[in-house]
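Quick one, tokens below. Sequence please?
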């Protein structure tokens, strides 16, 4: 995470479950004795690339997708792959600059061990955000014409993501109060809300049609309010489901992979060109998100050599929110976010002030055994530890990401069983 412990004695709770503990020291020169960060974990990337096999199977073999649409998806995939390698190369360079500006932290979950004394550069999510935006902007040259109906919404989505990345970096630098963090996504979502020209209707579930009397309901401005609230939830839910090396980026990678598979399934099963374009629109944004996130995960996986900061969690949450909104599958997106929903519900008593909330709601680390013990704080991380027993940080992160993958599979099963009956 990107929040840091300041010299201020304020005990105001933070919406981020933070990983690092950084002192607010005066400006000082970069210590040339500081070792460079560890190299990327390429083996991890090769293993995670297996997650894309179902997507590639559906894209190239299972569904007869039009050649022009497949061509656009492949161009976007190629540019995203280039973005992955650029991100991998830029992170070590950026880490030297952020350390020079004293943007570093100490890993609290390794306190009392030699690794706990290592200065870990943070806010490296800024690299992912910049590369993502460059890839997404350049892709317009290959896919959108000047009179494209989708161009306005595409640029509005990029404006929201850019705005959120900027506000996230500001949060990393200034360490704003958690109550302000809740408002930042509302501000960043304004470009999309103002430019959105799509439908504001919802399809009434078939079991309720007989009782309501209509099949389509136009919500008007309420739909846009819902869009704004979804952006707030997605952004902050990634931000508070954190506290372990690789957890923030890992959950984004799992959800982004599920979104890719969902989109290609909807494209292959539909005959409506407008519906297909909406889901292709989502693919154009989620492929570069997945590629750049994988590059960051190669440095952030246990043991982390960089911290992602609020910059990344805000960027990732906003990106997935606009993907779900403009792809018109917000209900599915919320089921993909089931672990984040549960974490939010567990956190609500503390975030609302009903129960005292410490600044760092992390488990207790035992430097003798290297294991984490769950506390009574309301987070999914502590909930897993209280019920599964003490775990190492790496093992606990794998359990949580496996739960994230199970939630995504549950979403696909739910859609399969409810297809034709619910909507």
């Amino acid at each position: 995470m990107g929040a840091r412990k300041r010299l201020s004695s304020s005990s105001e709770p933070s919406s981020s479950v933070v990983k690092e503990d950084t002192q607010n020291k005066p400006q000082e020169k970069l210590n040339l004795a500081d070792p460079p960060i560890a190299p990327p974990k390429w083996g991890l990337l090769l293993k995670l690339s297996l997650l894309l096999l179902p997507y590639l199977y559906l894209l190239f073999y299972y569904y007869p997708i039009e050649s022009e649409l497949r061509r656009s998806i492949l161009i976007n995939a190629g540019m995203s792959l280039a973005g992955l390698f650029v991100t991998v190369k830029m992170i070590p360079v950026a880490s030297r600059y952020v350390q020079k500006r004293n943007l570093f932290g100490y890993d609290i979950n390794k306190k009392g061990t030699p690794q706990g004394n290592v200065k870990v550069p943070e806010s490296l999510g800024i690299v992912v955000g910049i590369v993502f935006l460059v890839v997404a902007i350049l892709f317009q040259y290959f896919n959108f014409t000047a009179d494209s109906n989708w161009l306005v919404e595409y640029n509005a989505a990029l404006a929201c993501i850019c705005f959120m990345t900027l506000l996230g970096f500001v949060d990393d630098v200034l360490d704003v109060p958690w109550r302000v963090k809740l408002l930042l996504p509302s501000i960043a979502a304004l470009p999309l809300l103002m430019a959105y020209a799509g439908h504001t209707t919802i399809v009434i579930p078939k079991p309720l049609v007989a009782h309501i009397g209509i099949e389509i309901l136009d919500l008007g401005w309420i739909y846009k309010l819902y869009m704004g609230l979804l952006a707030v939830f997605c952004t902050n839910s990634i931000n508070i489901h954190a506290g372990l090396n690789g957890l923030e980026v890992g959950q984004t990678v799992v959800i982004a992979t599920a979104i890719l598979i969902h989109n290609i399934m909807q494209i292959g099963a539909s005959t409506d060109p407008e519906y297909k374009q909406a889901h292709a629109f989502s693919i154009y944004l989620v492929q570069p998100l997945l590629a750049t996130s994988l590059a960051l995960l190669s440095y952030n996986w246990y043991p982390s050599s960089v911290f992602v900061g609020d910059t990344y969690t805000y960027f990732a949450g906003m990106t997935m929110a606009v993907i779900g909104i403009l792809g018109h599958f917000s209900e599915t997106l919320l089921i993909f976010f089931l672990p984040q929903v549960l974490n939010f519900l567990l956190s609500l008593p503390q975030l609302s002030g009903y129960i005292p909330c410490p600044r760092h709601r992390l488990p207790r680390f035992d430097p003798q055994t290297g294991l984490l013990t769950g506390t009574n704080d309301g987070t999914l991380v502590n909930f897993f530890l209280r019920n599964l027993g003490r775990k190492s940080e790496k093992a606990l992160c794998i359990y949580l990401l496996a739960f994230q993958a199970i939630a995504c599979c549950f979403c696909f099963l739910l859609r399969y069983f409810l297809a034709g009956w619910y909507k």
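The radius of gyration is 21 Å. The longest strand covers residues 201-203.
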